[in-house]
Amino acid sequence: SQTIHQWPATLVQPVGSPLSLECTVEGTSNPNLYWYRQAAGRGLQLLFYSVGIGQISSEVPQNLSASRPQDRQFILSSKKLLLSDSGFYLCAWSGLGLNYEQYFGPGTRLTVT
Amino acid sequence: RKEVEQDPGPFNVPEGATVAFNCTYSNSASQSFFWYRQDCRKEPKLLMSVYSSGNEDGRFTAQLNRASQYISLLIRDSKLSDSATYLCVVNMKGGYQKVTFGTGTKLQVIP
Fold first, then answer.
1. Which residues of A touch B103 (CB under 8 A)?
2. What is the 3-state secondary structure (H, E, C) of chain A?
3. pLDDT tens per residue across span A27-69
């Protein structure tokens, strides 16, 4: 069966510091991968998605970037965090099923201070 | 008009009650529809996909109304464990890979 891992689970970082969040998927190959952010009390906002190694589509202009160095690894980065980057970051994968259902990792709760 | 719109609730219902949520979407070309459940401070989990003919999974029934552009979720015989936020998800543009999440409807089942 497929599993998706994210780490760390929680993170507190000062403004201006760099960020690196990692997501890995097991039990499937060539998944579509996604990064979302959920601000407190708000809906999920799609940040990036990837349909293959090195292929990244950005949905929202911001100071974040994403990379996919391996088929089942997706990384979210920032060179300098802003206060507004605080939120719940979720990685998801989807296969090539009929409806491309997405399955989420446990998330990283980021607080920028 | 929002791409995906849900009543935020909360819906407070007694155990054993039947409750229904609706979700409207703006893009008539949307093809894929889902209901997710999100517990407090946890990741969303897929509850069910919504098919054109409607579908049922135990106490949960999902319906799609393309003419009026809404989907619905019916929960029968509510349990305390059903308390959560229910997210409506629709694919909007760019093909099947990308979807848009509603902001969710909060359900609280009361003993």
1. 42-43
2. CCEEEEECCEEEECCCCCEEEEEEEECCCCCEEEEEEECCCCCEEEEEEEEECCEEEECCCCCEEEEEEECCEEEEEECCCCHHHCEEEEEEEECCCCCCCEEECCCEEEEEC
3. 998 999 999 999 887 889 999 999 899 999 988 867 899 999 9
